[in-house]
Amino acid sequence: MSEEHYLELCENPVQFEHASSVNNVFFDEANKQVFAVRSGGATGVVVKGPDDKSSVAFRMDDKGEVKCIKFSIGNKILAVQRTLKSVTKNASVLGFCWTNWNEIVFITDQGIEFYQVFPDKRSLKLLKSQSINVNWYQYCPETTVILLSTTVQGNVLQPFAFRNGTMCKMSKFEIELPVVPKPAKLSLSERDIAMATIYGQLFVMYLKHHSRTANSPSAEVVLYHLPREGACKKTHVLKLNTTGKFALNIVDNLVVVHHQSTQTSLIFDIKLKEPDSAVNMHQPVLPARSIHPYRIPLAGPAVVPSQPPVPCQLYSSSWSVFQPDIIISASEGYLWYLQVKLPPAVILLQDKGKLMDFLLRRRDCKMVILSVCSQSTGEKGSLPVVATVFDKLNQVYKEYLEAEQTYTAAMESGPSRGSAAQKRPVRTQAVIDQSDMYTHVLSSFTERKGVSHKFIIAVLMEYIRSLNQFQITVQHYLYELVIKTLVQHNLFYMLHQFLQYHVLSDSKPLACLLLSLESTYPPAHQLSLDMLKRLSTANDEIVEVLLSKQQVLGALRFIRSVGGHDNVSSRKFLDAARQTGDQMLFYTVFRSFQQRNQRLRGSPSFNPGEHCEEHVVHFKQLFGDQALMKPSTV
Amino acid sequence: YNSPAIIPGMQEKQYTPSLLNFFIYNPTFGPREGEEEKKILFYHPSDVEKNEKIRNVGLCEAIVQFTRTFCPTKPAKSLHTQKNRQFFFEPEDNFWIVMVVRNPMIEKPNKDGKPPTVEYQEEEILDTVYGAVVRECYSMYKLFNGTFGRAMEAGGVELLIQKLEKFFYRYLQTLHLQSCDLLDVFGGISFFPLDKMTYLKIQSFVNRVEESLSLIKYTAFLYNDQLIWSGLEQDDMRILYKYLTTSLFPRHSEPELAGRDSPLRPEVAGNLLHYGRFLTGPTNLKDPEAKFRFPKIFVSTEDGYEELHLIVYKAMSAAACFMISASVELTRDFCEQLDGLVGPQLTLLASDICEQFTVNRRISGPEKEPQFKFIYFNHMNLAEKSTIHMRKTASVCLTSVHPDLMKILGDINCDFARVDEDEEIIVKAMTDYWVVGKKSDQRELYVILNQKNANLIEVNEEVKRLCATQFNNIFFLD
Q1: Cβ separation B191–A500 shorter than 8 A
Q2: pLDDT of res. B470
Q3: Tens of pLDDT, residues A522-532
Q4: Cβ-count burial of A386 within 10 angstroms (0-12 exposed, 13-18 middle, 19+ buried)?
Q5: Where would I find the CCZ1/INTU/HPS4 third Longin domain in this sequence (chain B) (predicted)?
Q6: DSSP symbol at A12
Q7: Cβ within 8 Å, pair A461-B381
Q8: Which residue from A259, A619, B130, B159 puts its CA 20 to 30 A from A181's CA?
Q9: Is a pLDDT exceeding 80 seen at residue A415?
Q10: Which one is predicted more confidently, B371 or A136?
């Protein structure tokens, strides 16, 4: 079972002094900092951030109970709220958010106020405000969007976006409540709403509890897409198939739903299409499992080294869950990041196509995907599955190659208007290229014992088919692997057929590889020459091959037909002609080059640089001086 | 089959070459005097008188023995006489196949009621062509029966005689000696031209079928009677291809031809319509009486041969041959499974290939009637291409050129066979045609040009042009 826990708490949690009567603990979602405030700050405030840099300790005067404490972005300014009432207006301050290092937003039950802070002058300047009755608010630091709950029922949500000193009112929207209460009362709790970015888009997540009267047997999470501009739309419904208390996290673009009573969690991928259900209805990707058991590592001077770590109670009622991926246990003094482990998905998700869709969208997916590839090409592999897996991989691979190509083309055409938009495409782990496949899957797979060579070749061909289908140029080493495998099993005729249909694309290295096979498979010679011919850039190689076969006349005729006769080395041809021992052949070749000399330089004699002296001597010996071509007198 | 062709304007009758005798013997089976008949394993025509059979066999034996004294490893292959020509072939130790072909002849009527004069055309037929025909007879026998030796081991001479009788009785009727030519010498395979992607799809199809029906040992894939993929080794494929294209496919072409006016009733497998059907084995799977027997073939393996069921399954113009070890008994269940799996996929592939084919044809432009006709053959992969031959039918292989020209092609081929080196031969035929033969490495090309007033240089240039356009993707020395 343990390999089925697909969620885990991070190994190195942020540790802080646990909450107690003398120690208040606050969490700032914007900076992800935990504030441990002892005695109102008089005996110290310890701030722990996600890394050591963002951790600070200081003291401040105890001027009463701290309600809220937050640093501005970059730890520049500290803001502390001590009472609920503001002095100026008779309104309750619900809270405040830093939207920049020097910009702060106050939310009261009567509206929203946006200030610029001048630390030197110790003063604030009101940039903008808006009166509106507010029940509660939520803040998404990633997008600097504040969401206000308005109206009596609380289900009309008004988002505001902040950027560089401006406050922008976005279009409001209404959450459909399962039951409309009579008389009207606050019916939407802030606990049931969360904001998060998923796949780069801002969503408002609404935890819709089951309701007997509304005939909805189980709870669901409803996602509202909140675009920068335009209306907010209900886009996804995640079916939880159970009831009870839930909490939400977002990890690696997955919506994680924790269920307290069963102590399990579910994950949803909004990009995973459910073929059987209505559009945008989602079932959990994997069956419900609990977070991986966690043991609290006991540290510090008080701890005896031999003491075993204490198991941590998961899904504890003292847990607080924050967006996107934070779980805090104030009573124990820990802040964890929630993480997704991918290997269990391989076991839990039988449909390999769906599995690949799921994995390809995850951050650290490469090794898991490669392991899926290795597994699919293993003993229990089946070709249709292998084909699906390859096609999914190559789809992503192709998209990346295309983006890269577009980028390169744009760069080459020079910086044009709006070129700032051209960003170099990011190569995610999901881009599995041919070299990855070769190194991690295919090369070891072809060596594996107990796999039939039929299957090995079928898998290699399937990969090549898939690459071709996405019009990706196949790398030479894959062809080499195919050839090596075929040769190893004496499947030369199969190889011949592949070459005949140009399945293994032409290249000089491939032609040379074929040449090397000639001794075991004579037709490889012809295949190789054909390939060199088609390349049309390998005329020298063709000449070499023909000369090595003592086909001197053939070589000469060939080089003449491609117009390269004037540039070839006469010595090379004369050497080869002499080696054949055929005197007439030597005569013919010799005379042919004399004619060339005559044509090019006006004299039939060879230049010293051509190193043909010995052949001239040999020619004279065989045929006499008078057989030499005489310089023509023009 | 000695039907005379009447040449208009003259009262002559012309007779094409025809089969006189065909016999198989083994001299070691009746070495003693008086036992000569035991040597004879098969004799056609069977109604020949016993002593004549013995005499003819004895003559062949003597000729072979006699010529062996000159060259022990290469005894005579043929014997030319005025009236006929005999071909000798020893496919297995001491087993001899002899074919006697009557020379073509012209019968000239005589006046005054005298019997007509018969003129034999002794030099018209080619050794290479008919020598190849004899070898092919044996290969075809072996494809369906295994070697002679195998029959001997299994059931002695009696069984061998039985098998020879059964096979050759029918096979000899399908020999059409009058239309044998250079293509018989090559015994080549016509490959279907195909783009890489479609080819890979076919590969994928074959691999998947072999995976899900693991009984299948080898697969061959053809389209339009042309080969695309062979899982069999080259030599086995060569003879199987011959059988499929000259015997099996022509016999089953009717439903497709009738297709347009009276649409076929496609099979319904699951929810998918498909046009798949068995060309061997059961004609109708739903027939409760259907028999699941398939022809058996023998193919070579590293250490001998193996016997296989031959399942030929066709959907539209695409045919797949599946070969399964003969030791397995094929059931209705298996055939239904195969039909359900292969039928829809093959139908889809066939339409894919067809579409691809028409696209390619459109790109290459409308086919103009070229000024030349050619035969191409590559010894390395047995690829053959002919624009001289019409589509093969069950009965005859029609050519579009005069037999005299075909004879010239055959002669050039004989010349090529004599030497190893690359050669080129240009012949001006009596009828104003030019015939060009080129040999480059393992390839041979024969071109017939219809250019009356062309000179040698122009013909040479024309052939160069042809090579550059038709064969630009292979290495073909000018």
Answers
A1: yes
A2: 77
A3: 999 889 998 99
A4: buried
A5: 368-466
A6: S
A7: no
A8: A259
A9: no
A10: A136
Question: SS3 string of B362-381?
Answer: HHCCCCCCCCEEEEEEECCC
The answer to whether B204 contacts A534, with C-beta atoms less than 8 Å apart, is: no
- Give the DSSP letter of residue B466: H
Q: How far is A462 from chain B (nearest CA, A)?
A: 6
Structure tokens at B51: 């002593």
Instruction: Please tell me the distance from the alpha carbon of residue B170 to that of residue B158, in angstroms, as a whole number.
Output: 19
Residues B221-275 have pLDDT tens digits of: 999 999 999 999 999 999 999 999 988 988 887 554 444 333 444 554 454 578 8
Q: With CA atoms as reference, report the closest residue to A352 among A383, A379, A326.
A: A383
Token couple for B360: 């390619």
Among partner residues A387, A454, A501, which is closest to B210 by beta-carbon distance? A454
DSSP strands (E only) in A290-408? 295-296, 310-311, 319-322, 326-329, 334-340
Using a CB-CB cut-off of 8 Å, the residues of chain A touching B475 are 526, 529-530, 532-533, 542
The span from the CA of A169 to the CA of A184, in Å, is 26
**Distances, alpha carbon A561 to alpha carbons A565, A572, B298, B468, B478, in Å:** 8, 18, 47, 11, 7
Q: Smallest Cβ distance to A497: which of B229, B378, B478?
A: B229
Whether omega for the bond prior to residue A159 falls within 30 degrees of 0, making it cis, is no
Place of tokens 């390809």: A360
Task: Indicate left, alpha or beta for B112 from its phi (over 0: left) and psi (-120 to 50: alpha).
Answer: left
Apex A49 CA angle, A44 and A53, nearest 5: 95
- Confidence (pTM): 0.86
Contact A552/B at CB under 8 A? no
Burial A351-375 (b: 16+ CB within 10 A, else e): ebebbbbbbbbbeebbebbbbbbbb
How close, in Å, is residue A529 to chain B by CA atoms?
A: 6
pLDDT in tens, A16-68: 888 888 888 888 888 888 888 887 677 788 888 887 776 788 888 777 777 88
In chain A, residues with a C-beta closer than 8 Å to the C-beta of B233 are 493
Q: How far is CA A360 from CA A3, A126, A354, A391, A400, in A?
A: 20, 47, 10, 12, 13
Contact B294, B327 (CB under 8 A): no
Residues of B with CB under 8 A from a CB of A: 191, 194, 196-197, 199-201, 203-204, 207-208, 210-211, 228-231, 233-234, 378, 380-381, 383, 422, 441-443, 473-475, 477-478
Of the candidates B225, B163, B169, the one whose C-alpha atom is nearest the C-alpha of residue B43 is B169
Alpha helices in B364-455 (DSSP H): 403-418
Please report the ipTM that was assigned to this predicted complex. Answer: 0.87
Q: How many angstroms from the chain centroid is the CA of residue A490?
A: 40
Contact: A523, B211; criterion CB under 8 Å? no
* Structural tokens at position B73: 């490893």
Residue B160 and residue B154 in contact, taking contact as beta carbons nearer than 8 Å: no
Least confident of A1-10, A136-145, B377-386: A1-10
